[in-house]
Amino acid sequence: MSDAAHAVAGTATAPDLAPPVLDVRDLKTHFAIHHGFLRRAGGTVFAVDGVSFSIAPRETLGLVGESGCGKSTVGRTVLRLIEPTAGSIRLDGHDITHLGKAELRPFRPRMQIIFQDPFSSLDPRMSAGDIVGEPLRVHRIASGRALKEMVAALFDRVGLRRAQMDNFPHQFSGGQRQRIGIARALALKPKLIVADEPVSALDVSIQAQVLNLMMDLQREMGLAYLFISHNLAVVEHISHRIAVMYLGRIVEYTDKTTLFTRPLHPYTESLLLAVPVPDPRVKRQKRLLQGDVPSPINPPSGCHFHTRCPYAVDRCRAETPALREVKSGQLVACHLR
Residues near 46 by Cβ (< 8 Å), separated by ≥ 6? Predict the structure, then answer.
């Protein structure tokens, strides 16, 4: 477990038992590949291939997996920054899957994103105050003195000084830039925030500060988070439930305690065994994943993980396993569990 995880004050509290803020069913996002001057079709990238989950108010769903498994594509698709190929996306009970730009505009304030890179996601030509205030201007919520006061209040809430509102992004540290990104995401009082690896570019001590801030904001504002990360220690502390992705599909989906104590899918087991333990006295089995992640352009038949799975049988190569509940509250896509 990383130092950042140990430094986080407390753990995520239980979410409300309320209708989901976000409900995703059988979501698919495929990208066509074109070649040559005439743009001839040359294949398809199966980035997201049938993903389902829901997030309740005050709940954090951690989405984990190796690079290239489709985590960020899921986040951008549920926000309609990328168009879905199939499936449904419901926000507060409203189906937003196929809404046009004008129809989608009233729903935009309810869902926001925190980007991974706290520098490239900020316009270097705009002051920090203008960056945070831009959503308020775009949606015509405030202007003039009222806008400035609202931005100042947001700066206070994320731990920045009001005197810094006129500074530009290059005048802030990495952690401060990410606080600007969080303030911008909070400006419209959203119900859902997609956090796309929000602490991966930060120092360990700063990671803990940002995670503490996000957890405090969730308790105060009832926020729902889709927290995308490859850092299992961070996900363990901030999440209530965790979905493990592999090559465009969710292979395991359960609460964090169950996942870290009784994982069922071979891929989840391998991910957890790869996490270093900061105690030289602890001896445990080591199992390194063999081979490389297959290409999403030509994924393996059947279970996508069978090419690297030590337990694979003929059925795994021929038949796609369904994500089903094998224990109370624990869903796994594996023929052998």
Answer: 28, 30, 247, 248, 296, 297, 299
